[in-house]
Amino acid sequence: MPDRPDDGTAHHDTYGHLISLLDSSRVDYRLIDHEPEGSTEAVCALRGHPASEAAKCIVLRVKVDRRTTRHVLAVVPGDRRVDLDAVRALFDARYVGFSDADTAERLARAVPGTVLPFSFDDDLEVVADPDVVAQPKLYFNAARLDRSLLISGADYERLAKPRIERVAGPAAQEPGPPRV
């Protein structure tokens, strides 16, 4: 496996592709430098905003039938989880699960923890929860562990052109005291 730089970009130029897209589209955005971090909760703390304003991006393997497998980039608010049953129903699929790391990196063109809510690969369909595009401020790692991006949910929707469907499950539960 090749060595990866500390910023998490590896051999992908997804960061450059994203910045070119934003600049050519004349979208207002802000870059935020921070300590390298790929966990949604931890990077939200570094950036100083609630997790509900973050885009959590998960690459899924969707088996429609025995011969047909699709890959979907599910984008949900950072304080929520992907509802696999909703994705399965959406695609009338037999099975939906998390993609393996190599496939996710190849399709997302980013290492784990840096996946964008955009797809630059025709084999990766983006499905975003309506609560993501409704955000006035939407934060996500910019295909790097050490840099994030802030954009409006409306601008994200206009540029990424995701399929908008309810794919977020309930907010993640905080572990409580053990039951006796």
From TrEMBL:
Kindly give the InterPro entries that the UniProt entry links to this protein: YbaK/aa-tRNA-synt-asso_dom_sf (IPR036754), YbaK/aa-tRNA-synth-assoc-dom (IPR007214)
Gene Ontology MF terms in the entry: aminoacyl-tRNA deacylase activity
For this protein, the record's Gene3D superfamilies field holds: YbaK/aminoacyl-tRNA synthetase-associated domain
Domain YbaK/aminoacyl-tRNA synthetase-associated, first and last residues per copy: 34-159
Give the protein name, as stated in the record: YbaK/aminoacyl-tRNA synthetase-associated domain-containing protein
Source organism: Streptomyces caeruleatus
